[in-house]
Design a protein that fits this description.
It is built from eleven helices and 13 strands. With 364 residues, it is an alpha+beta fold. 29% of the residues are buried. Bound molecules: fe (ii) ion (FE2).
């Protein structure tokens, strides 16, 4: 009997080390050999990665929110930590079908909805990109063990570059991308400052050399604006080829197009750009969640009642003003305190070494 551990055999790594009866030959693909010897990444390696990502001279004055920069090998400690099969395994384990698949046809983004792992693979092979928004679920219990270091890396990055944290949906845009050699995501910009760490394979980036913010905001104000339409690259561009371990910083609103060179997996660590609306929306959301029952319903009276209707509206405005004052105080408090992140973004704890029990020699 021949036991072959193919890429679809999810339990295969657990197989190692267990005695198996009736097995004549076991063929273990190279991938599993790497997985079995995969070193656990520790907080020190993550800190070094962040340090290198921010190592370009005068990063905050020259590049932050202004222009892209590539740091070759910034994430060299992350090479070999995550590959195509990890992506597909995690996709199936953590998401419900249909899965999201993005490609570009005639200058417009098109979306497909593959239902199985095999369909995802063939859509990616045909030129699609499979994104997985891991920051949407990584604060929950169903965290893939593969993502623990990625979450800690994002936490370290937040502590190094963020001024304020507005909760996961308003501060975190972290995606894993599975792409094939024919892939293209279309020319677009994101509203996050994104540090892309190439984990596996290669991808080519074409990026405008600087952020043209006013131009982009004007595009968004146009009522015919659609984020699914390809943008045109304006002005000088730069081309970067990302190989495993490379990190590319692309600021929010910086236009770029990404195309595949081989099968690849990349991690986009996106920190959402924000404005005063985001801050107030976050505070209002917190109020609604924690204090809603402290605010009794407004007396709602129709216009036909005359004076009582006018008085009810005046009371509504008084209460709105009182709430705005409270929101202003809460805004001041949340802006003035030092950066506070959720416990889930804390640094990795050092692993406790197993202390081997010493066996006592039996007394004679
Ligand atoms: Fe993008």
């Amino acid at each position: 009997m021949i036991v072959s551990l193919g890429s679809d055999t999810q339990s295969a790594p657990c197989f190692a080390g267990r005695p198996v009866a009736n097995v004549v030959k076991i063929s273990i693909p190279e991938r599993f050999c790497t997985q079995m010897t995969r070193m656990k990444i520790d907080q020190r390696a993550l800190d070094v990665t962040v340090e290198k990502m921010l190592s370009p001279k005068d990063f905050f004055t020259e590049y932050w929110a202004k222009r892209p920069v590539l740091v070759t090998g910034a994430g060299s400690d992350c090479i070999g930590q995550y590959d195509i099969d990890d992506f597909l395994n995690d996709l199936i384990a953590t998401q419900a079908p249909p899965y999201l698949l993005i490609s570009v046809r005639d200058g417009r983004r098109v979306y497909a909805s593959p239902m199985t792992r095999e369909e995802v693979r063939s859509e990616v092979e045909a030129g699609g990109v499979a994104p997985m928004r891991i920051s949407r679920i990584w604060h929950e219990d169903r965290l893939s063990s593969n993502w623990i270091w990625m979450r800690a890396l994002f936490g370290s990055l937040c502590r190094a570059v963020s001024m304020i944290y507005l909760g996961p949906p308003r501060s975190e845009n972290v995606d894993l991308f599975l792409a094939g050699p024919k892939s293209h995501l279309g020319v677009h910009y994101d509203t996050s400052h994104t540090f892309t760490l190439q984990l596996f394979g290669e991808r080519k980036w074409l990026v405008e050399d600087t952020v043209r913010l006013e131009n982009k905001l004007a595009i968004e104000r146009d009522p015919n604006f659609s984020p699914n339409l390809d943008l045109k690259l304006v002005g000088p561009t730069r081309e970067f080829t990302l190989r495993p371990g490379d990190a590319l910083y692309v600021p929010a609103y910086c236009v770029h197009g990404v195309s595949g060179m081989s099968w690849s997996v990349s991690l986009g660590l996106g920190l959402r750009a924000f404005n005063e609306i985001d801050l107030l929306a976050r505070l209002l959301e917190t109020f609604e969640h924690a204090k809603y029952a402290e605010y009794p319903p407004i007396e709602s009276l129709p216009e036909s009642l005359g004076e009582p209707h006018v008085e009810a509206k005046a009371e509504l405005l008084r209460r709105v003003r009182a709430l705005l004052k409270q929101l202003e105080m809460a805004a001041a408090a949340s802006v003035l305190v030092p950066l506070r992140l959720p416990d889930t973004l804390a640094p990795l704890k050092p692993e406790r070494r197993k202390v081997q029990k010493r066996l006592r020699a039996p007394a004679n």
